[in-house]
Amino acid sequence: MERLDGFQRVVRRTTYCFCTVGMFLAIPLMLITASDVISRGFFNKPTPGTLELSEYMLSIIILLGAAYTQQVKGHVGVDFLTKRFSPKIRGIVEITTTLLCMFIVAIMVWQGFKEGIHEKTVSDMLRVPQWPFRLLVAVGGLLLWLEFLVDLFNAMERMRRL
Asked: Using alpha carbons only, what angle is made at residue 109 by residues 20 and 63, rounded to the nearest 5 degrees?
């Protein structure tokens, strides 16, 4: 059990650190968007490359924040049906859905890695290589998969105690 707690602490800390990178990009994203709106509105001259930079920053924020959102249970959950189940049935449903999520995210990690290592294109205006952002799908997905693994271990531990 102590090894599991250590694993959980490492996963949670790693997820938080990666999410922090994404959080620090929120302010520059707001600033370049505001400057683009101001230059477009007052001077009728948009800032070149703002759309591309916004897309890249948003992808980093979202992909690195998904695992942290799972960690704090911030994803949307619908429990109007499962809250009526017994604790044992609820545990079985939680384990099943977590395993299904892990399967889907594993495919996402695999495909993100596969696409990332074969990507050779660059963006249109700023000529930014696309491969780091494709690989970021795999990195963010791996972190999300690890969070699901922690959730799976916790759900199995709760089932064992029933």
From this structure: 25
The interaxial angle of helices 131-161 and 2-24, nearest 10 deg, is 140
Radius of gyration in angstroms for the set of CA atoms belonging to the chain, rounded to a whole number: 20
How much is the pLDDT for 1? 63
CA–CA distance, 147 with 149 (Å, rounded to integer): 5
Query: What's the token pair of residue 34?
Result: 């505001």
Q: How far apart are CA 46 and CA 36, in angstroms?
A: 6
pTM of the model: 0.89
> Does the CA dihedral 122-127-131-137 come out positive or negative?
negative
| DSSP, res 47 | P
Residue 2 has pLDDT above 90, yes or no: no
Separation of alpha carbons 143 and 13, rounded Å: 11
